[in-house]
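@channel sequence for tomorrow's demo:
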Amino acid sequence: MRIVRMTDADGMLDPQILITRLGGIARGTSLQEFGVSRMRLSKATRDGEIQRLRPGVFATDFAHPAELDAARHGGPLTCAAALRRHDVWVLAPEESPPHVWIGRRGRAHRHPGCRCVSHYFRGATTFGVVDVVTALIHLHHCEGDESFFASLESALKLRLISDASRRRIREALPAHARWLVDLARDDADSGLESLLRLRMHQLGIRLDCQIRIDGVGRVDFVVGGRLIIEADGKENHDGKTMMHKDHVRDAAASALGYETLRFDYEQIIHDWPTVQAAILAALARLPQHA
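C-alpha cells (generated this afternoon):
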C-alpha cells in the first residue's frame, strides 16, 4: 500500500497535499480542523503552493477551471455544467453560463469574468461538482422536462444511476413530472433520441426503440411496423464515410418495404415543427394510419 506523506520538511501538515485529498478546493476552516494554521496557509499562498480563491477558500492548481470559478462564486457546479463533467448528455450548449449551487443560506460572490447562474436550492453545499443525482434534480427545477429527460436517459445509459437513486430522483420531482422517470429507458444512444421519443409520446405515438432489422442493422425507432426514424447526432454522423453507410442502410431498408426519415441535431433542436410535420405525414401514408 502506498503511503502519501501529509507533512512537509518541517513536520507540518502540507496544505497542498491536504487540499488535493479533499478534492482540490477547501475552506480554510476545514483545513484548520486538520491542524493547518492560518500562518501556514498564508505562507503556502505566498509561495504559490496553493491559491486563495476568495476569503477563506483555497485551492490547488490541479482543480478543474470550471470548479474553481464555481468555488469563487460560492459553491459547486450543478445542473448541465455538472452533468457535462460526468460525461452525461445535456441539451444546454457548452458555452452556456455555469450554474452554481449556493444553498439556502449561501451568498453569491461576483468575481472577474463572472457569468455564473446562482441556485439557492436547499441542502448543504460543498465545492467541486455535485453528484449526478443532485445535478438531475436541480436540472429539472432549472430547465424543465425535456432537458431533464434527455440527461436522465443518458445517465441511465452510462449506468450512473442505481435503482435506489432513480427512486430518489422520482420522489424529489414535483408530482406532475414523476412520469418522466417512469418513461425513461437505458438504451438511448443520444439525447436526440430521448427528445424525439418524449415528443412523440406526448403526441400519443408509440415508438419501438432500438430495433434490429435483418439486412439493415439496428435502427433508432420503428413506427407502425414500416416507418424507420433515425436521430443523427453530430458526433456519430459527421463525415462522408458515415453518410455513405447511412445511405446504404436506407437503401436496404427501402428494399424491404420500409420508409426512412432521418433527422439531424439542428432539425430536432431548432426546427421541430418541420420534423413533427414530416413524421405525421409519413404515418398518414402507412396503410394502418390511412
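heads up for whoever presents: The mean pLDDT is 90.
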